[in-house]
Amino acid sequence: MGSLFPKLPDEIGWEILLRVEFNSHNNLRSVCKSWKAVLKCSHFYQDRKRLKLSEQRICMIQDTGPRNGCPYDYRVRVFDPIQNIWKTLSPVPKSIGNGKGIRVNAHFYSVKQKLVFVGGWDPYTLAATKMVCLYDFSSCKWRQGTDMPRWRDQFASAADAEGRVIYVAGGCNKFRAPLRSAAVYKVDEDKWDFLPDMPTAMDGCQGAFVKGKFFVRDMYGARIQCFHPHTETWKTMADRRNTGRIVSAFGNMYCFSSLGLIEYNCSESKWNIVGSYPTDRGRFLVNWATVFGHNIILSTRKDYSSSFVHMLVSPSRTQGAMKLIEIEIPSGFQGFLSTAATLDV
Question: Which stretches make up the F-box domain (predicted)?
């Protein structure tokens, strides 16, 4: 690799490039091979985060189909809430996943500078798949990962706080029987390891990673099973029957329940109401939620043809009715947004 800047030490050149905003990184790649090599380096983004120079993007999955005979055509929308800029990533190459693109209802996470898609349904047959694919923002390329070790549908999943692994557990098999099995995907190694089975099989469950533990909550909100990675043991806890979308945020687990926004107290194994829904919005259905800074970006819906995206003030500052700020979606990006993840770059 050549010098980054003429007559400047590379250490100074590195510091200069660290401070260039992410929206200009594509332009940097085209300047010279040295700069392109820097932007491919994982340490570059680690230094941006360490120096608090990293930026957050909300990555959302949206169906733009039908296209070329396929009823679904999922694309990744990338939203910069600070500058209100919307972009679309390049589609999944036909060489990955038999050319069928992102799977329907794929589980979706950001791990370091990568977007990871796990499982989901075949867009033609709607049969569950084991497929894993990734998009790397440092190289701007897609690649196929190692398939899940077993077939499962309607399972729970969550990424750890350090951005190293993704946990999966429960769900059902091809005969719709609920599963106890669990596994962990090591993203950098592209490798799956089996975990101990859960004490009780769970189907149609949700996952969250909170305080160093992987939580699996059933669809009825009656039971939580918690996995401790350090001891590799499971613990079962009773739960109030409050169904709704859960999200891991600010070191806690929240649920958008019928009662309002509730927060889980891990030490007492109980939920506490921290906010109520705005009374002027009618039925409040949260499709997904993800963290942005000290706030939460969430999507609400009335049906499966459209979505409304809002910014929710930090739950710790919520008193009474939650304050929601609606985010305007530009033409060309409107439609149903199925899921989302927050990316640090």
Answer: 2-48
